[in-house]
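Subject: for your reference before the review

Hello V.,

The reviewers asked for a structural picture of the protein, and I figured it would be easier to keep everything in one thread rather than splitting it across files. Below is the amino acid sequence we used in the manuscript, unchanged from the supplementary table.
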Amino acid sequence: MNIVRPKIVVLGAGYAGLMTTKQLTKVLSPEEAEIILVNKHNYHYETTWLHEVAAGTINHNQARVMLSDVVSQNRVRLIYDEVEKVDKEEKKVVLSNAELSYDYLVVALGFESNTFGIKGMEENAFAIKDIDSCRLIREHMEYQFAKYNNNPDAEDHSLTILVGGGGFTGIELVGELAERVPELCKKYDIDRSKAKIINVEATPSILPGFDEELITYAKQSLEARGVEFRLGAMIKECTEDSFIVGEEAEEIKAGTIVWTGGVTGNSVLGASGFELNRGKVSVTDDLRLPEDENIFVLGDCAWVWNKEADRPYPPTAQIALQQGVATAKNIKALMYNQPLNNFEFHDKGTVASLGSTDGMGSVFNGKKLFGKPAAVMKKVVDNRSLFLLGGVGLILRKGKLNPFDTL
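And here is what came back from the structure prediction:
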């Protein structure tokens, strides 16, 4: 007699989706459930490393991990396809090349860039979205430097790099650029003073959510290495080679323009008829879709409410990894009609890199770190995420193996 196993489908192999999949193989035996992981690419990429890929300070291959190297295909069926929508009524997922039924579904499809309707931004600015978009930024930026000395008509502003948005990603990017730009100037025999890095932020400060002392340190460190800040400068429009900012409609010209000012949940959520709050799903305490108890929504696709702060948690990698662990356990509980546990986030702190040898942040019980100790801790954090997803072997293949070299 053949026993029909319930089918668990995980959409997306980012931090949340991949961790859910890995944990499901631990809490469930092969006889208990069929596990399917759907992802657009045959690799997972470290989202928190994308700014380094974009700046060209690490190779893009270091930031990506083949799924077949970390997921046992004896336990998990891997499908490489693009998700178009979820049909909740029929309990199926519509892919570009197939349809897939499910009993339990995990939606962890990641983020998309949100330009907040700024005119020309989507058409004219690069965005840090995935490996390919970051490779394009790196190649375009280097091309601007490469052609500068070979084109007598080249203008100095072609060497300017404009970064829109002073949040976590934008500041980490300009930190990497502060290291990369001097290297490019040396490589192409260009006067360093001609190449500018300008960060434009609509609010009066950078890095929302960080302590004022940490913010001050980050800003002064970056300015000392040549980064210019334009704070309180609302971007009105992005043209092919400039930002138009402020009530005076000032034009800031550049050869490379990168938008990091906002993200939203994957557009599949809207296409599937999920009820959205600013592009994301407000999930229940146990991370489920309010109207469907068999669908979990995680990571960048979900609003997870922080009751103490009375606001959603920021969609960080550490939250996504913890959501994956919790969701795997809750799916097993759901299968056996046992009570589910509410998701509880255990904050281990946040560290921002300001280049390979500089950083700032707070860890554990709010202990503040600055400079090289923060840079070391950032590499430890990066290695830890690799360890959680793929063990020591993955650290040896892809990790930042000698964090203390920065000291």
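For the response letter, the relevant points are probably these. The CA atoms of residues 67 and 73 lie 9 Å apart. The mean pLDDT is 95.

Happy to draft the paragraph if you're swamped.

O.
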